[in-house]
Amino acid sequence: MAVFPSFLIISALMVASAQQQRYSNISLVSSLTPSTNSSWLSASGLYAFGFYNVTNGYAVGIFLAGIPEKTVVWTANRDDPVSPSNVVLVLTNDGRLILRQEDRDDKNMANPRLPLASASMLDSGNFVLYDSAQNITWQSFDNPTDTLLPGQHLSAGEEIVSSASKSNPAKGIFSLRMQADGNLVQYPAEPNVTSSDAYYSTGFLQVIPGNWSLGCERNFSMESCKDKDQNVSYRMRSLDNTVWEDTDYDIIEDMKTKEDCENACLGDCNCDAVFFKDGICRKQKLPLRYGRRLQGDSNVALIKVGTRSSFTQGVPNNSVNEVVKKRRLDNFLIISISLVALAALILAISWVYVHQNHVGTYMISNNRNVEMIDDVGLRAFTYAELVQATNEFKEELGRGASGTVYKGILSNNETIVAVKRLEKELAGMREFQTEMKVIGKTYHRNLVRLLGYCFEGSEWLLVYEYMSNGSLADILFNPENRPCWEERIRISLDIARGILYLHEECETRIIHCDIKPQNILMDEHRCAKISDFGLAKLLMLDQTYTNTGIRGTRGYVAPEWHMNLPVTVKADVYSFGIVLLEIICCRRSVDRRLSENEAILQEWVYNCYAAGELNKLVGYEDVDTRTLDRMIKIGIWCIQDEPSMRPSMKNVLLMLDGTLDIPVPPCPNSFRSSI
């Protein structure tokens, strides 16, 4: 029995700190299509603006991209939301945001006050359009559809309306309206409703469980009204002082008594209910979607109910069961309405109490991060389950510093997983449980998700989602599978977003300590996801690639590891800088097969940069030289010896998308300190 639609539930979970908002810049002549580049992501990858699948086509909107299921929070053109697969969303050079389809007129997706100069998908979930002076000329927060996000206001007189269904973004049957008295109230999504139509004033909601959106249903078929079965009878149930949605198809005036109105409905098989007031009888058809009880109103609602007569001797058992079923259904309406009326009264009192201090505007409180949902947990597997899932650890996917990864298939739902069998001596059980709790609460589209774990005696195993395209190293250092320039840029952004989440956005700050291509995995869409985060605290200090107490992999560790200095998140920034240069040049950071001048990647890159010979780094590839210059400078800034000189991952992202200007980087003091 749902009084409030689901559009408010999700908004209570989605919280993003205003101090951490970032944005991605979208320039004129940018475009999206449903089948290829279908969305523009916010800087962290949490939200996206673009196309998503609906019944019979595609709609344009804003959705949570940082979780597996696309959860839509805003829809464009809700009165006509569905488009075919051959449309193109374009930010035109004359400053319009339109849907363009061959042989059809362009369809405006927003109505800004001035011509557009750029757009941004913010990490708050707000899609913003700017004019040439970078003033906001339109934003989705000012045009809510079915969801309120943190920081979004709903002023007096404004409303949000539920969607018709999960697969149909058109307007549904409920609305939440901010009243002038400061109460946020649910109404039927109908024109010209008044305060008396508010749901906290009703006595009536769902009658048939599972069909709340359809309103009331008959408990007998239309055909039974016409048959001559002597075991079937019909009568009218009276609901005094009741006003229901008025959808009359016949009005009989000068009706003297309520009984006359009842008989008029009983003699009409098309009539399901009548309303009688002041000598006027109004015939109604189902569904009757909403109603209310007003003690001062003399209107009487009369509902047609079909029943069967008493049991007779010789009736077969199956017929007896049918009679019992019909009788139960016959009584269900009265019982349900009584229960609903009581529930509505309790909810009305609660609703008024909760909202009595809210005046003029409404905003979801900013008290939790979207990724930190309390009920997120990890599954505890038994060792026997994982032995069976991996076919006794038969298919090896890869080896790392902490253990070997095997392919597995869970027997309960046939989900493919990656099972990491930890082979090194670890910290204690308490530390293991603490880290599992931290890792289990982290979720981002650019992190490999931990699904569960096993701890039985000496067997310590972790179960991750399966990445079908292997690691970044597999595609980056393979000449036959090398990513194109645009994909390299996208991969760099994916990795930066994942590290930023670990550093600033999850509940417990995590320093990865081992960022490298082998720990960056690629899903079926070649989206980069960081793995093995949070494990650094579990490994004993002498169980790494070196014997010097350093956590990390040679060639990627920051200089402070060697200098016995405090290690901060800037150590990950250094490792990211090395990986970024590897992505740009599609080669390893250390390659002794090359000449002495080129063997150490970061040294060769800086020498080429200083000499103005960046073309040597990418050979004869067709790359955007301005973007190449920007990415090289970011990489050099990230690998500075002094941690304080390295940018934060937040600023790295802003530099990658062109938002922040990048000054000329100095030469790092020592290239070989990390070798």
UniProtKB/TrEMBL annotation:
SMART domains, sorted: B_lectin, S_TKc
A GO molecular-function annotation: protein serine/threonine kinase activity
Pfam families documented for this protein: B_lectin, PK_Tyr_Ser-Thr
Keywords: ATP-binding, Disulfide bond, EGF-like domain, Glycoprotein, Kinase, Lectin, Membrane, Nucleotide-binding, Receptor, Serine/threonine-protein kinase, Signal, Transferase, Transmembrane, Transmembrane helix
Keyword GTP-binding appears in the UniProt entry: no
Membrane-protein topology: Single-pass type I membrane protein
Top-level lineage group: Eukaryota
GO CC entries: membrane
SUPFAM superfamilies: alpha-D-mannose-specific plant lectins, Protein kinase-like (PK-like)
PANTHER family registered for this protein in UniProt: G-TYPE LECTIN S-RECEPTOR-LIKE SERINE/THREONINE-PROTEIN KINASE SD2-5, RECEPTOR-LIKE SERINE_THREONINE-PROTEIN KINASE
Name under which the protein is recorded: non-specific serine/threonine protein kinase
UniProt organism field: Olea europaea subsp. europaea
